[in-house]
Amino acid sequence: MTASAKPAIVYRFQEGVYINLTNRCPNLCVFCIKTKWQMDFHGNNLNLSAGEPSATEVIAALEKELAKAPFKEVVFCGYGEPTMRLDELLFVAQTLKGWRAQAKYPPFSIRLNTNGLGNLIHHRNIVPALAAVIDEVSISLNAQDANTWRKLVRPASGYEDGYSGVVEFIRLCVQAGFKRVVASCVDKTGANPEDVKKVAQSLGAQFYLRSFLDAQN
Ligand code: SF4
Questions:
Q1: Rg of the chain over CA atoms, in angstroms?
Q2: Which terminal Cβ of the chain has fewer Cβ within 10 Å, N or C?
Q3: Ligand 1 mutation target, pool 23, 115, 150, most atoms within 8 A of CB
Q4: What is the extent of the structural domain holding 196?
Q5: Is residue 202 part of a domain?
Q6: 129 Cα–ligand 1 center, Å
Q7: 2 belongs to a structural domain
């Protein structure tokens, strides 16, 4: 599929409206689709190499998109790690929460998709700030142990021991009382989904097995 020329700040997928805050990420997962799909996601060009959107631009794009058609959730996702832009993420999420309080749109959830490295990126516990504005968190656990995690996510220098940080992030999210905390693993990557599920459940999180994505359909 060919990407549209203009990068999408927000885009639709299933019943959600997704926010593309950044392409930056401390990982280079073997299963990451951004390279394979050449920064395209079902016809949306998610390539932000010309510049990341400001919080104001994201809010303007959201207002335009949310008015167009029904949606059930707004998700911070995109082809990158949203917590790399924590200030913008929190500001936009706070705005969404305000719109929800004013019933500007029918009820919706606010979700974050993350690789779980946010506390290591920021050298502090960011979970309380997230819990104040986000309803649900989906965290990529990806592996049952640190060695498998390292092989699969190929972390940047400084994040090699990140697996324990991801596990701790999940534990903190469960304690913080989000409406839903889901730890995921991608199928057919070499991780053992049953063992990853045990780790997720031992932390009090729900488990989700993501399909391995190869070609877009
Ligand atoms: S954490 Fe997500 S965005 Fe980052 S490389 Fe892995 S799959 Fe891609």
A1: 17
A2: C
A3: 115
A4: 10-210
A5: yes
A6: 22
A7: no
CATH code at 92?
3.20.20.70
Intervals of the chain under pLDDT 70:
1-5, 214-217
Domain count, the chain: 1
Does the beta carbon of 46 sit less than 6 angstroms from any atom of ligand 1? no
Is the distance from the beta carbon of residue 88 to the nearest atom of ligand 1 less than 6 Å?
no
CA-to-CA dists, residue 88 to 57, 76, 97, 192, 210, angstroms: 10, 11, 14, 35, 27
In a domain, 5, yes or no: no
Q: What is the pTM of this model?
A: 0.95
**Going by CA atoms, what residue is nearest to atom 5 of ligand 1?**
28
**Binding site membership of 81 for ligand 1 (Cβ less than 6 Å):** yes
Identify whether the C-beta of residue 93 lies closer than 8 Å to the C-beta of residue 76: yes
